[in-house]
Amino acid sequence: MPQILVILGRQGSGKGTQAALLAERYGVVHVSTGDMLRAAVAAGTELGLQAKAVMDAGNLVGDDIMIGIVGERLAAADIGARGVLLDGFPRTTAQAAALAEIAGGAGPDLAINLDVPIAEVTERMLARGRDDDTAGAIARRLELYEAETAPLLAWFEDRGCLSTVDGLGTEEEVFARLAEVVDGL
Ligand code: ADP
Fold this sequence. Notes:
Structural class: alpha/beta
Helix content: 55-70%
Largest sheet: 5 strands, parallel
Number of helices: 10
Strand content: 5-15%
Radius of gyration: 16 Å
Strand order of the largest sheet: 2-3-1-4-5
Bound molecules: adenosine-5'-diphosphate
Shape: globular
């Protein structure tokens, strides 16, 4: 069973940036479902064509599709050898249950909640200006985060693998806090 780490946090929390830094420091494979979907959009694949409209509206791509994509990626040899840091998955309880099944019934080894308040992430996303960073799509994504993803925090807590890290401060300060948590594993 490969080592499985998960990073959760509101959109705009800096989770993608920090996940890349953590993957580099610890040698695990960084799997960002948002990056995978954006690559599919850029390549114009069937999946990309389906996902684009959903993403631009700030909605979630269907669980079956996401579980299929991630399940396939987790079966690859590099992850078996190095372990994985999942960024953007799971985002719903159905995805968390599927991950637990892949992991042989257990939760991940560690789930980090990168905590940044709503007002701060909204400001950051408006400044970033990605295709799906329109005011309407941002509001929709944050609403879905509270409704679909925030409940996973309790799910991870129950499995004893949740660690919450303050995401306010400089990139270096936040990274130092995260590294401390991973070092404690
Ligand atoms: P953000 O965290 O700012 O939403 P991401 O890059 O993680 O950015 O995701 C961008 C979009 O990709 C999401 O709004 C959603 O439409 C889709 N997406 C990514 N991961 C998932 C997932 N696990 N389940 C459903 N949709 C997803």
